[in-house]
Amino acid sequence: MTDRAATPHHALLVTGRLYLELAVGQQTRHHDAQAWWHHAGDGGHLAVAAARLGARVSLFTQAGATAHDDELLGTLAGEGVQVDDVIRRATTFANSHVYAEFHGSHQPIALSSPARCALVPDDVDAAEHLLMGHQWLLADAALPIDFLDAMAERACFYGLRTVLCAKQPCEDRIPRRTWKHIDYLVAGASAIEALARQFNDAGITPGDPAALCRNIPSLRGVLVVRGATGICVCDGRETCAMPVGAREVVEVRGVCAVAAGALAVALAEHHHLVDAARFAHAAVRFYVAHEGTRAAMPFRKEIE
Questions:
Q1: What distances in angstroms separate CA 26 from CA 23, 81, 219, one per listed residue?
Q2: What's the confidence (pLDDT) of residue 158?
Q3: pLDDT in the model for residue 171
Q4: pLDDT above 80: residue 88
Q5: How far apart are CA 255 and CA 8, in angstroms?
Q6: Which residue in 4, 43, 88, 102 has the fewest CB atoms around it within 10 Å?
Q7: How far apart are alpha carbons 250 and 103 in whole angstroms?
């Protein structure tokens, strides 16, 4: 059995989706549009962001059984992420067209087939030893709701603090029983607006996360990510806005994962929420000014 007293406080257990994504560059007068596959999914992005910022990171998720999945996991292992406990299970796809994300006139288009994560509540038993060996859980809100609910509840049982990353509104509504086990929320502005509708509170806006804290008493803090514009942090009483102010934005895909990874690392190191948000703010400023998604994620020495 793992000695929890000897477990580093900056040990993070990450759970989230993994998939391949097709990035399409913008066509110009002199060059045709280029397309390339790259490793995506908030599970991988969260894990890499936290590992580069100094945390000991283990990833618990489901990956497919193809050579592409082997390469994806190999890339994560190369970043220092522990992937030995990833469940290998054939990936299924929804019967619908390819999903596309547009990120502004100067950003590439991201395309991905809508893969369904196959994690189920019974899979949480396979993560038992990981929960016993970590102090914090960093979770992707787009995981299957029944699995997310079981994972958050088990994490709470073992005394882990949970940071939930919701870059956009979830397809399925997260029930109130799940929110009881969530300590911190990092969310995009659209996700905050969707939660306002869920809790029937017109006062919840991207500029007022305090109302969300009032509706979810278990929340210790909310970090709102507004792309390359800036971030806003609230502990339920005070709200602090931190503009990015970048002269030229290079990348915005993955910015919410970078903010969540940085916040979780700082909180795990016992920083106060506002100081942890400042650390996330520095990571976001670096990220949006550099090219690539994983490639733009900062190492700790680059933002200190």
A1: 10, 32, 40
A2: 96
A3: 77
A4: yes
A5: 26
A6: 102
A7: 11
Token pair for residue 197? 């509708």
Name the CA dihedral angle for 181, 185, 190, 191, rounded to a multiple of 10 degrees: -10
Distances (CA, A) of 111 to 115, 206, 223: 12, 27, 27
Q: Summarize pLDDT for 139-193 with one digit per residue, the tens.
A: 999 999 999 999 999 999 999 999 999 988 887 889 999 999 999 999 998 898 8
- Are 188 and 162 in contact by the 8 Å Cβ rule? The answer is no
Contact 204, 238 (CB under 8 A): no
DSSP string, 207-268: TBTHHHHHHSTT-SEEEEE-TTSEEEEE-SS-EEEEE---SS----TTHHHHHHHHHHHHHH
Identify the burial level of 32 via C-beta atoms within 10 angstroms of its C-beta, where 0-12 means exposed, 13-18 middle and 19 or more buried: exposed
Helix (H) or strand (E) holding 46: helix 42-52
For 112-147, write each residue's pLDDT tens digit.
555 678 899 999 999 999 999 999 999 999 999 999
CATH number of the domain at 4-303, please?
3.40.1190.20
Nearest to 251 by CA among 301, 294, 195, 282: 294
Q: Provide long-range contacts, Cβ within 8 A and 24+ apart, for 149-157.
A: 149/121, 149/174, 149/175, 149/177, 149/178, 150/121, 150/124, 151/15, 151/124, 151/127, 152/178, 152/181, 152/182, 153/177, 153/178, 153/181, 154/124, 154/127, 154/128, 155/13, 155/131, 155/181, 156/180, 156/181
Provide the percentage of residues in the chain whose pLDDT is more than 90. Answer: 55
Residues 143 and 141: their CA atoms lie apart, in Å, by 6
Q: What is the pLDDT of residues 191-227, one digit of tens each?
A: 988 887 787 665 555 557 888 888 888 999 999 998 8
Between these two residues, 106 and 282, which has the higher pLDDT value? Answer: 282
